[in-house]
Amino acid sequence: MHGDSSAPAFPDVMAVLRQRTAEAHTRLENALELLSPDLSVSRYRDVLMRMHGFYDALEPRLDERLTGAGSPLPDWPSRRKVPAAAA
């Protein structure tokens, strides 16, 4: 904590993550051309399948670090992407 006893000891993890990854997200969105008027259903499906594969491999590792007492993301289970991607 810094001076003010009501301030959290750590900054909002999601706000920091969004700020620090904004440029990478913009580059990825541009590279994938997901907002292109020429985006086909099959190309969109391919991107979603690849994203599912990425998160399917990543999330078990994140589970190990973000589950339990003291987690910087206590709502981590609700943030998982795999269930929605699989649906």
Structure description:
The protein has 87 residues and is mainly α. The protein contains four helices and no strands. The chain has helices spanning 13-32, 41-66, 76-79, 82-86. Mean pLDDT is 85; it is low at 1-5.
Would you kindly provide a brief summary of this structure?
This protein has helices spanning 13-32, 41-66, 76-79, 82-86. It is an all-alpha fold and 87 residues long. The longest helix has 26 residues, at 41-66.
Q: What is this structure's SSE topology?
A:
Blueprint: H1 13-32, H2 41-66, H3 76-79, H4 82-86
Mean pLDDT: 85
- What class, by secondary structure content? mainly alpha
Strand element count: 0
Report the sheet-strand fraction. under 5%
Order of helical and strand elements:
HHHH
Unreliable residue runs: 1-5
Radius of gyration: 17 Å
Shape: flat
Please count the helical segments.
4
Largest sheet: none
Distance between the ends: 42 Å
Helix content: 55-70%
